[in-house]
Design a protein that fits this description.
Blueprint (H helix, E strand, L loop, with lengths): L3 H14 L8 E3 L8 H14 L1 E5 L7 H6 L18 E3 L16 E4 L13 E8 L3 E2 L2 E4 L1 H11 L1 H7 L5 E3 L2 E3 L2 E4 L2 E3 L2 E3 L5 E3 L9 E2 L3 H14 L7 E3 L5 E5 L3 E4 L2 E2 L4 E7 L5
Parallel strand pairs: 1-2
Antiparallel strand pairs: 2-16, 3-19, 4-17, 5-16, 5-19, 6-18, 7-15, 7-17, 8-11, 8-14, 9-10, 12-13
Helix pairs in contact: 4-5, 4-6, 5-6
The protein binds fe (ii) ion.
């Protein structure tokens, strides 16, 4: 855990500079595949403050890898359901085998890749909208660094408990072929070598096992309570065609939606936004 003095200085700066509304996160761009230095700077200013930015373009299906490279994102996590180039189509799909992202059902708060092993930590994530739903499909977003601060304000012991290497286990997933993914045990909060916070979390209650001690369970409950209460730090948006989210894997959810034409592209990276 970061030392008190350094932490409180960082916390103060963080809270003071955090955007007051979602509008402050939005950047208009002409061509996502070839951004101007000013557009890149504008996006980096926002990701620097809030770990996320939303860009608006008129391009429904740009090459996301070209977009990402402009931010130093190059090491894609190829999901087992991802398209061949490592970018996933998120839409209602039979090949999604009933997994919630590939249905029109709501998705609870999570960070991406919470079931990944430590060597495949998702540090950055991109969502680009090609087609929005006729109704619904909004995302709520929260900077995981802010959540860390709010939780630590409540009780530093919560942070300690959720930083334990055995805090949260995602059980193995079995399919017709046997074990499709082995169980993953790890911390919710960890810091990388440069000191950046990483968060591994899902608010789902099935297929997750919390360490069964009082402080871990209290910490998980406090975390969930923050995410389910109104907060000036929780932003809500609906991505429309040409819009996208670029983030350092912040907390997010998705509401349910109507119709079956919604199409988003998603790319997950082992790198952080440079
Ligand atoms: Fe996600």
């Amino acid at each position: 855990m970061m030392h008190d003095e350094a932490y409180f200085r960082w916390r103060e700066r963080k809270l003071a500079s955090h955007p007051a509304s979602i509008e402050e996160l939005i950047v208009e761009v002409k061509d996502p595949e070839s951004l101007s230095p000013i557009e890149i700077e504008a996006i980096l200013e926002r990701t620097g403050k809030a770990n996320m930015a939303i860009y608006v373009s008129s391009h429904p299906h740009p090459d996301l890898k070209k977009f990402s490279l402009q931010f130093g994102l190059e090491n894609l996590d190829a999901n087992w359901l991802a398209g061949e180039d490592g970018v996933s189509r998120i839409e209602i799909s039979e090949s999604g085998k009933g997994y919630i992202p590939y249905t029109n059902r709501p998705i609870k708060w999570h960070t991406d890749g919470y079931y990944n092993p430590p060597e495949r930590k998702i540090r950055a994530m991109l969502l680009h909208c090609a087609q929005s739903a006729s109704d619904g499909g909004e995302n709520r977003l929260m900077d995981h660094e802010i959540l860390y601060c709010l939780l630590r304000d409540q009780n530093p012991a919560f942070i300690e408990a959720l930083s334990a290497a055995d805090a949260m286990t995602i059980p193995e997933r079995i399919d017709e072929q046997g074990v499709a993914r082995k169980a993953e045990t790890g911390p919710v909060f960890s810091h990388d070598q440069e000191g950046f916070l990483h968060m591994r979390y899902t608010a789902r209650t099935r297929s997750i096992a919390w360490k069964q001690d009082a402080v871990t369970l209290a910490a998980a409950a406090a975390l969930e309570a923050i995410l389910s209460s109104p907060s000036p730090y929780i932003f809500k948006t609906r991505l429309e065609p040409g819009m996208g989210l670029i983030c350092n894997n912040v907390l997010h959810d998705r509401s349910g939606f109507l119709g079956n034409s919604r199409l988003l592209f998603r790319a997950r990276y082992y790198d952080r936004i440079k």
